[in-house]
Amino acid sequence: MSKLIVTNVGPATSVQDAGRFGAQRYGLTPSGAMDRLALATANTLAGNPQFAAAIELGPFGATFTAQDDPIRFAVAGASRGIKIDDRPLPLNQSATLMPGERLVLGTAREGVFSYLAVERGILGEATFGSLSVNARAGLGSPVPRPLQSGDRLDVRAATDRTERAIAALPLPTDPIRVVLGPQDDEFGDAVETFLAGTWTISATSDRMGYRLEGPVIRHPSGHNIVSDGTVNGSIQVPGNGQPIVLMADRGTSGGYPKIAAVIGADFGRFAQTPPGRPFRFAAVSVDEARRAAIGFAALLRDLPSRMVEVTHFEFDVAALQNANVAGSAVNAVDAGTWQSETPQDQQP
Amino acid sequence: MAAEFLPPRILPSGDSAITVEFSRRIDDDANRRVLALDRLLATRPVAGVTETVPTYRSLLVHYDPLQTDFDSLASRLIALAAQPVTDANASRHWRIPVAYGGEHGIDLDDVAKMLDLTPDALIARHTAPVYRVAMIGFTPGWSYLSGLDPSLELSRRLEPRLRTPPGTISIGGVQTGIQCIAGPSGWHLLGRTPVRTYQLHRDPVFLLEPGDTLNFYAIDAATFDAMERAAEHGDVVAELVAS
Question: What end-to-end distance do the CA atoms of chain B give, in Å?
Fold first, then answer.
């Protein structure tokens, strides 16, 4: 046994796995990783089942130390500086943290969320089959809240094996695909405005919802509908005409009309879109979305076959530069804006 | 033609859920059909369906797109929705204690004024009906009830509150509800119940089921405190009456 100690951490860092499904009918939010492909990549490198619980880092940095025994880990998702003490490491590669060493993760540069997976997983007690943190409902393990400095996580000692790497696939920059509905018919011509528009994500977004900034989406029939069910990626339009995309910590029902939903295959890629970067939506049919889901499942399935053993340490100039540029600062001012509560996003 | 026999609208919610919409309004018949379809899916599982979420006027059916596809699931759901509607949960009725007004329901006096009622008359009208749990959603245990006295209909607050207390009993529009955990709300707060509709490590974790019926009865602050302590230790506090 070993301990992974959180010595410095920004907000929006929490233990997440595939999520907590099966009780949405009682209002229980699924939670779970915002980017499942990145979670699966980190876990594959660490030798774990793909959706084992890992530490999800938001845009900010974090520092950890190992106590007692060596800990094998891997980081995937948004690129950021990774260092063990002063040794830079690349993303998408496993490594071993020796007792007393410091693992320093910088702020996210491309994307928003990274996953720190630990070999043989984070140990905790599952509720409704998941360790995912849902602070509002007091759920999550080993702590039912985002991580804080001083937290000590039980993990298992590293096994004796070589380190592994997976070459990162380039992230597509195509429009985010959506299936229109279920209330798209209430929006009339505004559906065209929605699909033609260039959008950015507001800095006041969080795991519950991403607020969009772009053209005003009007809905002639008023912005209050009778509450109905939501999915990951539901795009609801409140009275101000600026859509909100419901994310992993969404309420299970909502009372604003929903113009469309981001397809499952693009949900993680959408979640990784940093605030301020322009993007567009593209409507696809349910059949096209299903083909994309099958393709995404194949991408997950093929992760292990893309993994290579790292037999010797290669001097990685890019990683070194990244680590030096990024540093490990946790910017409390930015943290405040990104983490701000978004209570108006959803109403009962 | 009665609404009961109209086929529902089948609407995509992304690529892994279907909204089966029986009505666009709050409609008791529609909600009965929602709950009946929900029970059918529970007793006769359909391949690929992962979970269902009943709401006032629609059933959200989550599915795994790797195991089924929209068209085949849609036709299955239409066939099931055409079956006769039965009320299976009719025997579960709850009596829910509520401490109205004062610190427990900070909007009670204002709401009474807006409706031109005395606070006591407002409480009487809120405790009179038999409500049905139309849906549970938003946050764990948040139970939306149908059956509010139409004379108590009131627009939601213009400025939603960022935090309203656990156990809040409130009204908003034509709806009334039981909120379990603290959270934001734009509804009007009439009182609080010590009953926890969601409590981890209690059996059952979720007290109410969609389709259950209930009525409220008024308790004083001292009774609330005593019941709250009992609830903390896992007592259900609500009374289950066979009807």
Answer: 31
Q: What is the pLDDT of residues B47-78, one digit of tens each?
A: 999 999 999 999 999 999 999 999 999 999 99
Q: What's the whole-number mean pLDDT along residues B195-218?
A: 94
State how far the Cα of A25 lies from the Cα of B211, in Å rounded to an integer: 12
pLDDT at B211 over 60: yes
Distance CA B44, CA A283 (A): 34
Question: Which domains are seen in chain B, by residue range?
Answer: 3-86 (3.30.1360.40), 90-242 (2.40.100.10)
**Residue range(s) in chain A whose domain bears CATH number 2.40.100.10:** 176-297
Q: Which of B10, B15, B35 to mutate to test the interface with A (most CBs of A within 10 A)?
A: B15
Residue B175 is predicted with a pLDDT of: 87
Check CB contact of A205 with chain B, cutoff 8 Å: no
Q: What is the ipTM of this complex?
A: 0.91
Please classify residue B219 by burial: count the beta carbons closer than 10 Å to its beta carbon, then call 0-12 exposed, 13-18 middle and 19+ buried: buried
Cβ–Cβ contact A290 with B under 8 A: yes
- Joined together, the tokens standing for residue B64 give 């795994």
Instruction: Please report residues of A whose CB lies closer than 8 A to that of B50.
Output: 21-22
Contact A261 B14 (CB under 8 A): yes
- pLDDT score of A312: 63
Report chain B residues whose CB lies below 8 A from the CB of A268.
none
Residues of chain B above pLDDT 70, percent: 96
- CA A286 to chain CA centroid, nearest Å: 24
Residue A29 contacts B, CB cutoff 8 Å: yes
Q: Work out the minimum CA distance from A1 to partner chain B, whole angstroms.
A: 28
Inter-chain CB proximity A227 and B137 less than 8 Å: yes
The pTM for the full model equals 0.90
The CATH fold of domain A176-297? Cyclophilin (2.40.100)
Chain A residues touching B65 at Cβ < 8 A? 264, 289-290, 293-294
Q: In the predicted model, what is the mean pLDDT of chain B?
A: 92
B140: nearest CB among A27, A294, A344:
A27
Residues of B in contact with A21 (CB under 8 A): 50-51, 62
pLDDT surpasses 90 at A225: no
Residue B11 C-alpha, separation from nearest chain A C-alpha, in angstroms = 5
DSSP B124-146: HHHHSSPEEEEEE-SSTT-EEEE
Q: What is the pLDDT of residues A165-193, one digit of tens each?
A: 999 888 788 999 999 999 999 899 999 99
Cβ proximity of B25 and B65 under 8 Å? no
Span A80-113, pLDDT tens digits: 999 999 999 999 999 999 999 999 999 999 899 9
* Residues 222-281 in A contacting B (C-alpha not used; CB under 8 Å): 224-234, 251-254, 258, 261-265
Q: What share of chain B is helix, strand, coil (3-state, %, to 5)?
A: 30, 30, 40
Quote the pLDDT of residue B5.
65
